[in-house]
Amino acid sequence: MHFNCGMPFNHSHDSPNSQIWNPDSVLGLTNKNINNYSCLGWAKTRGRRCERWIAQHKTSYGHNILHKLACDSPSKAAESPRLHDAADILLCWQHAGQISDILGQWKRKLEKCADDIESENKSHVKAEAFEDGWLKQLQEDLARGYAAGKTVPPRNIKREEEERRAQEKKQREQEKRRQEEKERQRKEEERKREQKAREEASRQRAQRAKKREREAREKAEKEAASWRTAWERYCNAWSKPADVSVTNIPWPVKSGLQSDVNEANVKLFFAKAPPADSVDSGDKRFKLISEENMRWHTDKMMQRFGPDVVNGAAKGPLGIIAKVVIELRQEARRGRGRQGR
After folding, report:
1. Would you say 55 and 8 are in contact if contact means Cβ atoms under 8 Å apart?
2. Three-class DSSP category at 30
3. Which of 95, 144, 231, 328 could form a disulfide with 273 if both were Cys (CB 3.0 to 4.6 A apart)?
4. Do the domain assignments include residue 86?
5. Structural domain for 129, as ranges
6. How many domains does the chain have?
7. How many helices (H) and strands (E) does the chain have?
8. Could you report the per-residue pLDDT of 221-251, keeping only the tens digit for each?
């Protein structure tokens, strides 16, 4: 950058009235930590702005550039190459490499300033339009009043503005209430949907529980019927002892087959098969098991089928049954005693 005889060009700052924006406040040129303008660079090691002074003739020249740019719009100033010149002058030799950072900051600030000015201009236009409309309306009111021979009272602009703002506030409050009501209705509908879903889930659980109970009951009834059938078959076979032979022995198991005779199946048969009314007391059960004990006693089997059968192929099943009914008779006797007490 060149200067006349080591001094800046003698450009005085433009009048503040001719400037659209203030470089000092918009760009943040003044360093609040010292009483003079200093380098615009950032001292990273100290975490603050550089406090190295720039020569007075340089700072005057740099600020003169910026104040001239302030006579144009912030958007136009942001694109001016003179902005680069000002940043170059206002940086010390140590922070000359930060010129791109300074330009980036300035351009962002100028863009924000442009947006603020635009918003302010829109507000002024709106206010001017309101005033123009009011003046036009006032003229029309005066004209009508003059034509009718009446005195038209002057309009109270402040009151009308307050009424307009009150109306806008009322509309905002109404909109807020509408939104709150919509939100309340949405929550209520959501609550009803959730309640309906819970009720449906509860109904389905109840249906599944009833189905399980029904299936369990049907299974139990079917099981009881199969045991009644087994008991009836067993009793009917023994109702005519003379017809019982080695080939058709009524085995005390649910299937009635010799192959299924074992200790567990025989005990299960005498626990499940007998009708309830024949074992619903200790005495009745003892009587029934005593009769079975006599029927399956080894001596009784020997008399009925002979030693060849008892000691032959049927020896194992006959021995199991005889053993089980003896144990059951002992249990029934103890049970009858407990019931008597």
Report:
1. no
2. coil
3. 231
4. yes
5. 1-153
6. 2
7. 12, 2
8. 999 999 999 999 999 988 887 777 777 889 9
| 128 and 274 inside one domain | no
Structural contact between residues 317 and 259, judged by C-beta atoms closer than 8 angstroms: no
Both tokens of residue 88?
A: 């170059």
Phi then psi for residue 68, to 5 deg, are -70, -40
Note whether 86 and 65 are within 8 A (CB). yes
Report how far apart the first and last C-alpha atoms of the chain are (Å, whole number): 126
Q: Is 35 in the same domain as 142?
A: yes
- The domain boundary residue, chosen from 123, 153, 183: 153
Q: What is the pLDDT of residues 2-41, one digit of tens each?
A: 443 333 444 445 555 688 888 888 887 776 655 557 888 8
The reported pTM is 0.42
Centre a 10 Å sphere on the Cβ of residue 222 and count the other Cβ atoms it contains: 10
Tell me, yes or no, whether 90 lies in a domain.
yes
Asked if residue 212 belongs to a domain, the reply is: no
Residue 308 and residue 312: Cα distance in Å, rounded?
5
In a domain, 221, yes or no: no
pLDDT at 8: 42
